[in-house]
Every structure is written in C-alpha cells, then in structure tokens.
C-alpha cells in the first residue's frame, strides 16, 4: 500500500461525521490526504522535514481557530500550529495529526499617528514591511521577508534593528490569542500580564496568537549591504568587527558571516563559490553621515567586494530571499556568546574554511545595544547579557548531502559550545528536547512552566520548543 493510500485510510477512520460536522463550523479550508492541494499544503520550508498530517485546517478567523482547537481535543490529535512554516525542525507540521495553518490570516493595519501596526497571526515579515514602508515606519524583524511573524516574534526575533530598537518582542505591545480551551483573550501589560510576559520569548507554547500589535519605528531608507574579505583576512576582520560593534553607535548594525560568495551576478565571477568572511551592514542613522561612518571600516582593510550603499528597508529585509527559496535541506545549530576569544575565533575560521556547501554559513548576530538594555526577567528571553546570537546553518538542495552537512554543523557547534554563554536562541535550534529548551530559556524556564500549567495544563500545544507544564 502506498503512503498516500495509508493516509487516506487513516483519514477515513477519523472523518465521516466528525469532518462533516467540522465543515459546518469552519469557513476556511479543510484539506485531507488525497485532496489535490494536500501534497503542496503539507510542505514546510525545510525540505528535510517530510511529515504527513491527517488534516490541515486553514482558518479565516478566530471562530475557525477555536473550532479547529475543539476538533483537536475531540479527536485526541497532536496539533501543530503553522505561521510562516520557516521553523528549522518543522514545528509547523505533524505526522498523523492536525495542522492549524494560519496562512489565510495575513491582514495588516498601520496606525501612522500612534506609530503602531496590527498584524494577523499568519502574516509574513514581507507583508509587514510592505504595509509600514509607505509610512516611513518599520518593526524590528529578521533577515528574510518570507519568515513568519508568528514564530519569529514568539521566539524573540533578532535582526537589523536589534541594536537600535531591540528585539521584535521589545516592540510587541499586545497579542490576541485563542487558548487551549478555545477561549479568546488579549494579553498586554494590563491584561493577563503573565501570559504577555511568557509569549515574549516562550514560543508557541501558550496558545494561538491571532493578532500582534507592534510599535513601529521611524525607519525608511538605510545604508546597508555586504562587504566581503578573503579568508586570509577573515580572522583579523572578525576581531576588528567584534571590537567595533561592541562600541559602535546603536544606529550601526553589522553581523559577521562566513560562507561562500553566491555563484551568480552581481557577484564578480572570480569570487564565485569562494569561502570568505563578510559583514552585512545596516546603518539607520542619517544617510548623509553614512559615508563618514563607513570610511574607517573601508580603510581598515579594503573589502574585495563592497555592495554597501543606500537601500530601502523592505529591500534589505528581502536581500537573501532569492538565495534561500523554500525546499532546501536545512540543519541548524546555535548558541549565545558574550565574547569571542582568540581560540573561538580560530575555531570559527577553521569551520569557515571547511564550509560544506555554497548555501551553508555561520552568522554572528549582535544582540547588544537596545536589545541588551532590557532586563533578563522583563520578558521570557533570558540571555540579555549575551552580545551575540550565533547560528550555524548547513544547507543544500540535495538530500544526498544531508549526512555530510549535518556532521559539519554538529562538529562546528561542539568545538565552539564550550566558550558559549550556555544556551541558544531556540528559533535557531532543531528539535533537541527538554535540556536544550531549558538551556535556551535559562532562569526564566521555571516561571514559564508555571504559566504553561495555568494556560495549557494538558500541554495541548506541544509541537514546539516545548515547555512542560509544572504548577
Ligand atoms: C531562512 C531563515 C532565516 C531566518 N532568519 C531569522 C532572523 O533573522 N531572526 C530571527 O529571529 N529568526 C530567524 N529565523 C528563525 C525563525 O525565527 C524561526 O524559524 C521561526 O520559528 C519562524 O517562524 P514561522 O512562523 O515562519 O514558522 P512556523 O514553522 O510556522 O512556526 C514556528 C513555531 O511558532 C509557532 N507559531 C507560529 N505562528 C504562531 C502563532 N500565530 N501563534 C502561536 N504559535 C505560532 C508554531 O507553532 C511553531 O512552534 C530564520 C529562519 C529561516 C528559515
């Protein structure tokens, strides 16, 4: 019997009256194995994840979400919630269970006077950028426009604006949510304050966020883009960058990367596929000052490739989209760092020289500045004293390379982990279980487990970086 026939049989045992009854309650889509859209609908961004849910519901409103949650309880199904489907371990899907896919909930409303933006739970960051840019506003987000607002925000969210305006959660003002019992609540500083604290870093453990209200900041055009240096200069540039970014004005953001020059225009052909060190810049200060800011950097060591210049915020936020389309194989590893000593820098350069594929890279994201000024217990994100969030991504289109790329990422992580701060940003981790979740949330884990016990005592929302309820 083929996989598809098995699914159809499972769904048949589940459905008939139950699914017919669900259809009377849901205005959105209900997709089952065997339906023409099923094969596409079950896919997530990371093609290393290949799961076959028994049912996919795409709600169009809060009532649909509440009914889908009720159906999950009634049928005893494992339930995965999907925002933008970008999650590395593929928490946006589940084998044999129910997927609540929020992709039809992408409405956005900007309030230019209040400088806020309300974003529905299934929106992507490109949707937000598109809506806020005409008003000269931006919400701190990540480095791709195709990432979901839901998963990125609930995990914390670091990106180009972190040093200036904080993490994404530091700009979150309020959430509307449907809880595990189907109830609808608002959480902010005045209402359900414990829940509001928990969703700012605790992931999708506490319920389904139907809409986020963010503060939007005055950012429109910036000065940014990559500068590359040959591998022989990468170690020296990494030392230079670390010193610079620890002292630089908060308008200046630049993450350090190790990886191959993409083998395509506009990159000069002689560098195609060559492993190099690079800094991806984003300066949000006055544009007329930008050349002056970058002059000493360019003079320190002339970059081999220099694409930094004036660019709009939506353009820089989507600069990597084309390099990383959905459907590649991804293995992630990560850690927070307070400082890179000489030995750690040597390990990084070593790993950079052994980069397994042109798609793979190591990125060191600064999280000092405004993100570091928030207290470690003010939100669920515990590592406010770390200065860098490091990610090691092993990526390739060909599944035949999975073992090789995964081995490189694991070996690199093992060599660097002893000099890390101890835990990692959980949005950059695979599904490694409780010890990793505890390490990532640090001292805040105990309070998070108590809040989980209050809002989701049966651990209904467990397809995630799971916090087990503990009163
Ligand atoms: C190419 C790439 C680049 C990235 N760059 C960055 C970056 O620059 N900065 C950064 O901080 N992170 C970055 N990430 C990591 C990203 O934050 C996580 O992968 C995140 O989980 C993606 O969210 P999503 O909604 O797209 O994912 P999904 O797979 O849809 O969901 C991830 C998790 O969030 C939960 N969830 C999603 N939406 C909701 C909701 N509305 N309510 C409740 N739970 C929800 C899901 O249940 C799941 O547990 C990147 C990821 C990729 C693949």
Q: Sum up the overall morphology in one term.
A: globular
What would you report as the Rg, rounded to the nearest angstrom? 22 Å
**Overall pLDDT, averaged?**
96
Low-confidence stretches: 1-12
Helix content: 25-40%
Put simply, the count of helices is 15
**SS class:** alpha+beta
The tally of beta strands, per DSSP, is 19
Strand content: 15-25%
| Major sheet summary line | 8 strands, antiparallel
The distinct bound ligands, ions and cofactors come out as: flavin-adenine dinucleotide
Terminal-residue CA separation: 46 Å
Task: Tell me the layout of helices and strands.
Layout lengths: L2 H12 L2 H9 L3 E3 L6 H4 L13 E4 L3 H14 L3 E4 L15 E4 L6 E4 L4 E5 L4 H8 L4 E2 L10 H7 L6 H4 L6 E7 L5 E5 L4 H7 L8 E8 L1 E2 L2 E10 H17 L4 E9 L14 E9 L3 H14 L4 E2 L2 E4 H5 L11 E9 L4 H12 L7 E6 L21 E9 L5 H15 L17 H8 L3 H11 L16
Parallel strand pairs: 2-4, 3-4
Antiparallel strand pairs: 1-2, 5-6, 6-10, 7-11, 8-9, 8-10, 12-14, 12-15, 12-16, 13-14, 13-18, 17-19, 18-19
Helix pairs in contact: 9-12, 12-13
